[in-house]
Specification:
Layout (H helix, E strand, L loop, with lengths): L1 H7 L1 H26 L1 H7 L2 H26 L3 H16 L7 H27 L1
Helix pairs in contact: 1-4, 2-3, 2-4, 2-6, 4-5, 4-6, 5-6
């Protein structure tokens, strides 16, 4: 089943959508905090970031790891590792700071690129 989902690109597409949602979450977080203090507090709580990170890491491991076995291209996996590492580093710096946003956005962008490259490599096979 994983082979079918990975080969069809569904997992990579879902991972890219999750990355886009993360970017929107980061950008909208400032406005949520300013406009809707209680709602912003809910969406910016640490557990939302931890759940998002775990989902991203699982999807990356499954899609990119299976991609290496399927098409042999290691570049998507390497870029994905950089992305996950950057997102993990963002969770270790003070919340709401410039470093957190920068590390998160770099990580999310790298992970999206990795999934896009993985998707393309699977299509060329």
């Amino acid at each position: 089943m994983l082979s079918r989902i990975t080969r069809s690109g569904q997992l990579d597409s879902a991972a890219i959508a999750l990355s886009a949602l993360c970017m929107v979450h980061c950008a909208a977080g400032i406005w949520l905090m300013a406009g809707f203090a209680s709602l912003g507090g809910l969406f910016l709580s640490p557990w939302v970031h931890e759940i998002g990170f775990v989902l991203a890491a699982i999807m990356a491991a499954l899609a990119l790891g299976h991609g290496v076995r399927l098409h042999g291209a290691r570049l998507p996996l390497a870029i994905g590792v950089v992305g996950i590492g950057s997102m993990l580093a963002a969770m270790t710096v003070p919340h709401g700071g410039a470093y957190e946003y920068a590390l998160t956005l770099v990580g999310v962008a790298a992970l999206s690129i990795a999934h896009l490259l993985n998707y393309r490599a699977a299509r060329q096979r």
